[in-house]
Amino acid sequence: MSFNCVAVPANVTCWNNLTTNRSFGSLPARWIQPWAATYLFLCFEGAVGNLLIVGLIFSNSKMRTGCGVLIGHCLIAYSVLCGFSFPIVATSVYRKQMFRWQMDPKDCRPYMWIQMGCRFAAYWFDLYIAINRVVALCFPHKYRQFSRARTEILVVSVLWVAAFLLSGFGFFNFGMVFIMLPLGTCATLPVGRVGSAVVLIGFYGPGALTAGAYLFVYAKIVRRKQQTEPERTTNDNKAKKQTTRKRMITTNMMCASFVWTAACSMILPVMINMINVAETDLRYPLIVIWLAAVQLVGYASNPVSFIPID
Q1: I need a labelling partner for 9 at 20 to 30 A (CA). Which of 75, 85, 138, 241 fits?
Q2: What is the pLDDT of residues 234-247, one digit of tens each?
């Protein structure tokens, strides 16, 4: 049985009849089985761990405000990725390599819509958390006004809706197309200016802006320490220092989480962009599956990293 690409234009390579040729992206069972076990364990740990942190946040009234709400929703996106999207990757690769079964391209559409929507949401929540930290540490007199409950609810709602609307471009094959990869999974490819704009707005733009926001925060703090003279110790000063210290802990935690997740997530896309999304699967299938596991570590390890940092 052969599977064709879905709505792929002429300038995009379409890999057909992959299930009938074992030389296309094939891997021996001795590599697939340990990888699948490791990958699914990371999925389970990431989904459960992130949901536990979400439960802690929303069960504590002090954490259900300001940055805590944003962190909670960002971790919800991570939980959906670890609990739904990434396990489909593992089972698709395993079934293709072990039993020569490949996902129907029609199933790519809803699957990739959910995956891209959650990834867009996670990147945008990271960006808004970074903006929240900029206001909290660099403009503390405006923080209460900035982090009002109504504002947070509105922002969270808009980010979720906008993320899935943007991922809908791929769902309707507008600027994004689906292809079946040799390893057994499906992927989206940006096509034309619309596709490039979707990738920029959903992935690279928020990532670059988030990195810039954290750099701005730390540069501002260093400059402030160099210019500030020692103050007399008063009760008001103690309270301000304590508040600043708590906000700094949260900032360090979220910055470390962002850097770690971005570092784990960028290795595989960089490799794919340097070669070709389908050719990468063909030439380096073993490297691809383990880099996919590294990518998953970025989403699954946040619960482990939050505890020692905070």
Answers
A1: 85
A2: 555 666 677 777 77
